[in-house]
Amino acid sequence: MIDPNEPYEVQIAKQAKIIEALINRAERAHEVGGSAYSLFESAIALQAKVWEKTKDLEEALDTLGRASSELEIAYKTQERIQRNLADAMVAMEGGFALFSEDRLQVCNAQFRELLPDIEPLIKPGLEFDDYLAAVNTSKYLNPDENGVLGRAQLLMSGQRPGRRFSSFVMVLRNDRWFQFSCRLTSSGNIAVLQTEVTDIVRENRREKNRLIDQQAHFLHAAFDHMSLGICTFSAESELLIRNERFGQLLGVPLPLLRKGTRFQRIVEHVERHEILDRKGGRSDFAGWFRAVRRGDTVQERFRRRDGMSLDIRIHSLPDDGFIVSVMDVTAETQAAALLEQRVQERTVELTEANRLLQIHADEQRKIEAALRQAKEAAEAAHTSKTRFLAAASHDLLQPINAAKLYLSMLTERVGEPGASEVVSRLNRSFTSIESLLQALLDISRLDSSGAEFNITSFDLGSLLQGVAEDLAPLATEKGIDLRIVPSTRWVTSDQRYLMRCIQNLVVNAIQYTERGRVLVGCRLRRNRVRIEVWDTGIGISQDDQTRIFNEFTRAGGAGKSTGMGLGLSIVERACRHLNHPVRLVSRPGQGSVFSIEVPQAVAGRASACENPTMEPIADGDLDLIVMLVENDADELDAMTQILESWGASVLAASSTAEAAALMQEIGTAPDILLADYQLDDGDNGIETIRTLRALAGVEIPAVIISANRQRDFVRVGEEMSFAVLAKPVQPVRLRALIDWKTRARVA
């Protein structure tokens, strides 16, 4: 019935009502009557309830007493804080006021007495905006400072969320200065503090005046001790201030240098006594003044009779006056004259040096012309050497090719073991000669300035497979496991030179490996394909790695049968021209890894004139009519016997005219045409192909056999659809190429 959270006065009132109700109930019960026992029971029950309520009432009174004590303590604490605040405000040197909810709550006497005309308004409850408005209209405020407190009002009332502090300086009429500070407290109240700064302002003013006087003294002292003569004149050309140096330099007496002397009198005195000697006549005084009035600077150079040189300048001033400066430039003039003399002397020296340089340049041009002629002669000799090597290689390859063909036939016909060994050794000797000549020819081509490359896109896997087929017998003979990792990548390069480079690397790997294996594979590095040749050979020392790419150089520890040392030189030259980086990683005794990086290409179709990589066909009858055109009799005979041994019918001719006559004689076109490119009397294999195809009226399958691999030659092969087979001819490749060309025609 009684809520203990309610105020004590309410609880006591409720308890009194409850007690009164119980007493009334007991009296009504006594009046109604009843048995004595029931009345006794009612009295006992009533007494117990009265005791219980009395106990509650006592507890409530005790709680009320404690609350009254705490309230009294709080009142006393508040009074003490207010007295302390009042004492602190009285002790403050400046005025202080506190505005709560934009109304004045408390302030000290200094705050009220600052402006006597608004003192009656300063009472508790005064709004902050009204206070600022009253201050702005106070007659004690300096009129020049009106509106300052208006800005404070705007700041404190309209920008309170962004700015919590503002400070201005008020200037009173009696030259008193007060700093007016407003601060927003965290509870949203405004604390106003008025601090007198009159002493500080006056001290600053005195210090400023002292500094100005001191600076003026310093300026005057510096002005008098300047080496430059200075004199200022008013707008009426009257002298205002000058230093002693001005009169000394111009030779003007002191009476003329008094304040108020006109500038024209000083000029007339100088001209009358001829103190200054000006080249070109008398000074143009009027012209000086016109120039100064326009804001220009007048500068004149004079010379005194004693030889001193003076530089006079006239500058305009903001008040329409002007300032005249006179400078002693004798040292500068003498230095300039000395410098001019030295310049003239130096000019003479430079002229002589220039003449000598011209003579030297003429001699240099003559030397350069001689060097250019020597260079042209060297280039001509180099070109002649290249042509000679190419011609000599071609002439040497002709009999070697014929000898190899004879050896191939002799190998098949000789059955005696001893004769077979002699033929084998003879074959190896010719192979070595062929390799050496081919290497020399490649180096000659790569060293020539006009080296040509046939850059195409082709299947790298087919090229690697061809390398494996060519070098498999060499690896088997030495007992080396040669492995080629298949690849489907296409690359962009010169197919012939790239194949030659890979062959050289694989041959080197086989020659320098006593046992183990040689592995050839590819790795993709972004848009480039890295062709790597791994071996388990003797390795290459660090010193040898820097020189093995030179001609006729072999790694240390190599045997006598490891080649002539030209393979890596060809690789370095060809890859340098093709911009294919070559890398080497090797450890002596463990093996080496050579790699060539080639640009990757999009898969496509190989060119028709490129040599195909094919599986050799099985031995059997070659039931074809073959037109063979070769100007070398031995090679013609050897090639004829090889073709006839394969079962072909051979029409042998030494020129285009003879081949055309043979075809007209038999009355039909041959199944395939094999022609050497370089024939006698300016004739060539391309002309043979054109002539026979024109006579037959059909495109006869053709193969050009030559050592010529120029780009134009390959381009013509693509246009005319003939294949190219390099000399010396390998019979197995010739047989495969004939089969491929004739099968393509049948298809």
From TrEMBL:
> From which domain of life does this come?
Bacteria
Q: What is its EC number?
A: 2.7.13.3
All copies of domain Response regulatory, residue ranges: 625-742
| Residue list for modification 4-aspartylphosphate | 676
The molecular function GO annotations come to: phosphorelay sensor kinase activity
Q: Which residues form the Histidine kinase domain?
A: 391-602
Q: Pfam families, per this entry?
A: HATPase_c (PF02518), HisKA (PF00512), PAS_7 (PF12860), Response_reg (PF00072)
Q: Which reaction does it catalyse?
A: ATP + protein L-histidine = ADP + protein N-phospho-L-histidine
Assigned keywords, A-Z: Kinase, Phosphoprotein, Plasmid, Transferase, Two-component regulatory system
Catalytic class of the enzyme: transferase
Q: Which SMART domains match?
A: HATPase_c, HisKA, REC
Instruction: Name the chain's protein.
Output: histidine kinase
Upper classification of the source organism reads: Bacteria, Pseudomonadati, Pseudomonadota, Alphaproteobacteria, Hyphomicrobiales
